[in-house]
Design brief:
Shape: globular
Order of helices and strands: HEHHEH
Oligomer: single chain
Structural class: mainly alpha
Distance between the termini: 36 Å
Number of helices: 4
Strand order of the largest sheet: 1-2
Mean pLDDT: 93
Strand content: 5-15%
Radius of gyration: 16 Å
Helix content: 40-55%
Number of strands: 2
Low-confidence stretches: none
Length: about 120
């Protein structure tokens, strides 16, 4: 806890760099999520380039304990569509500028290679 403010400031700096470079307006101080039409393809591409990305949220209605949550069919479809595109990029306070720039470069290169839009 003694370094919480310092670590939060470091993540905020990375957040601002990502937002500016990638065109997002994310505000989270613990995850940096983007949208990729081919989420799984991008995750594999990043992994081949030694960058580990992830999928951190599964829709609740797809988890057994929560399958009976009242939710319209349309809402379920919308949530599942967002889930299929959401990728969490590396985002931690000890990231170097080189690491941050590598992630940004990979995102942009992948989008350009496959002509993908957000």
């Amino acid at each position: 806890l003694m370094r919480l403010d310092e670590n939060n400031a470091k993540r905020k700096r990375i957040l601002d760099i990502y937002n500016k470079a990638l065109g997002y307006n994310n505000k989270s101080d613990y995850l940096y999520r983007i949208n990729m039409e081919d989420r799984d393809g991008f995750i594999q591409y990043a992994l081949k380039n030694k960058v580990e990305c992830g999928v951190h949220f599964k829709p609740l209605h797809l988890m057994k304990p929560f399958q009976k949550i009242p939710m319209s069919k349309e809402d379920k479809i919308n949530v599942e569509e967002v889930y299929k595109k959401t990728v969490s990029l590396p985002f931690y306070d000890t990231m170097t500028d080189k690491e941050v720039n590598k992630v940004i470069s990979l995102v942009k290169k992948y989008e350009n290679l496959y002509n993908l839009n957000k």
